Amino acid sequence: MAAIYKRELRSYLVTPSGYVFLAIFYMMAGYYFYGYNLMGATTDFSYLFSSLFSFAVFLTPLLTMKLFSEERRYKTDQALLTAPVSLASIVFGKFFAALTIFETAQAVTLIYLLVIGTKGPVEYGVFFGHFIGMFLLGAALCALGMFVSSVTESQVIAAVGGMGLGLVFILIDSVGQLSQEPVLNRICNAISFVQHYQDFTMGILNIASVIFYLSVTALFLFLTARTLEKRRWG
């Protein structure tokens, strides 16, 4: 897995995708930090993280769109699939490389915390609740984006598909609210990224929400592995 991880991480550093993701993320984070925290003279990071929560859905596919689709496009996937490494190593290596770049972007909020901490009291529980929630969201988005990338050779389709699938999990609770069926409403809330993120915004580490995000991540990693297995023996 280490070899796959290093290979994929290096690819982010020698191609524009990693830098484009980091540049856009830093730009948006800096904009909201400056406009809300500095200009608004507040130590509350809720607005910043809420904004990043929404943007993450659209930005994360920039990281995941090439993970497998590029391999298929340039016909290097067969060499990868027939290499003496397990499918789990391939999947986890690529997944952790994407997640590393995502967390490199998110780490800028720790600098913001240090800056604001010198200006006034900060609710550290709320900040780190948001931070952990954003980490779990990033893991889930990387996993589902990687799955979409594994089923197509087009990076454009992988990016659009990753965004679309992410939006389904973001907006599904709204569908439940429009429904008059209590059962459907509960189901939609149960699989909503937004609903499970709420406790983190209050600094509450809800184990059920942690398990939910980890389960979504594990599910799409499993589906990616099954897709690769089918192509390996297909």
Please give the structural blueprint:
Layout: H1 2-14, H2 16-38, H3 46-59, H4 61-64, H5 69-73, H6 77-81, H7 87-106, H8 108-117, H9 124-150, H10 155-178, H11 182-190, H12 193-201, H13 207-233
Helix pairs in contact: 1-2, 1-7, 2-3, 2-7, 2-8, 3-9, 7-9, 7-13, 9-10, 9-12, 9-13, 10-11, 12-13
Tell me the overall shape.
globular
- Written as H for each helix and E for each strand, in order along the chain, the element string is HHHHHHHHHHHHH
Report how far the terminal alpha carbons are from each other.
23 Å
Give the oligomer, counting copies of the same chain as homo and different chains as hetero.
single chain
Largest sheet, described in full?
none
Number of helices: 13
Mean pLDDT: 88
Q: How many domains?
A: 1
- Percentage of residues in DSSP E strands: under 5%
**SS class:** mainly alpha
Helix share, percent = over 70%
- Segments where pLDDT lies below 50 for 5+ residues? none
Radius of gyration: 19 Å
Total strand segments: 0
What's the quick description here?
The chain has 234 residues and is an all-alpha fold.
What labels would you give this structure?
single chain; 234 residues; mainly alpha; 13 helices; 81% helix
Structural commentary:
The chain has 234 residues and is an all-alpha fold. It has one domain. It has helices at 2-14, 16-38, 46-59, 61-64, 69-73, 77-81, 87-106, 108-117, 124-150, 155-178, 182-190, 193-201, 207-233. The protein starts with a helix and ends with a helix. The mean pLDDT is 88.
